[in-house]
């Protein structure tokens, strides 16, 4: 899951952009956030990015290879671990936050 999110953060980033991973424990949960300074995901498409084979508008990713399975796999993996995933995205980049029950 983390590998896929980091791979996307790098693939869809701007030249010279950054990607980061933050992990912390909060209110009985473990939070893992992967953030980038990339192109962002258009608001109209954010609700679909976890669907299998879905890829954001081709004008945003013409040169980027992929099948559209990665985020669907991440969402499934998070659910298997009784977690949740949240996306915050805008023109300055995206942050995917995963929340899992702390053991």
TrEMBL record:
The keyword NAD does not apply. SUPFAM superfamilies: ATPase domain of HSP90 chaperone/DNA topoisomerase II/histidine kinase. GO terms for molecular function: phosphoprotein phosphatase activity; phosphorelay sensor kinase activity. It catalyses: ATP + protein L-histidine = ADP + protein N-phospho-L-histidine. GO terms for cellular component: plasma membrane. SMART domains: HATPase_c (SM00387). Residues 1-103 form the Histidine kinase domain. The keyword Cell inner membrane does not apply. InterPro entries: BphY/WalK/GraS-like, HATPase_C_sf, HATPase_dom, His_kinase_dom, Sig_transdc_His_kin-like_C. Its EC number is 2.7.13.3. GO terms for biological process: cellular response to phosphate starvation. It holds the Pfam family HATPase_c. It is an enzyme of class 2 (transferase). Keywords: Kinase, Phosphoprotein, Transferase, Two-component regulatory system. This is histidine kinase. It comes from bioreactor metagenome.
């Amino acid at each position: 899951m983390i590998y896929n999110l980091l791979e996307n953060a790098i693939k869809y980033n701007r030249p010279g952009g950054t990607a980061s991973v933050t992990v912390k424990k909060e209110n009985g949960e473990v939070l893992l956030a992967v953030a980038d300074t990339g192109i962002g995901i258009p608001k109209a498409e954010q609700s679909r990015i976890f669907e299998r084979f879905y890829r954001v508008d081709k004008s945003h990713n013409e040169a980027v290879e992929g099948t559209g399975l990665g985020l669907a796999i991440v969402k499934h993996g998070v659910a298997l671990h009784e977690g949740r995933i949240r996306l915050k995205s805008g023109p300055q980049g995206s942050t995917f936050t995963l929340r899992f029950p702390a053991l």
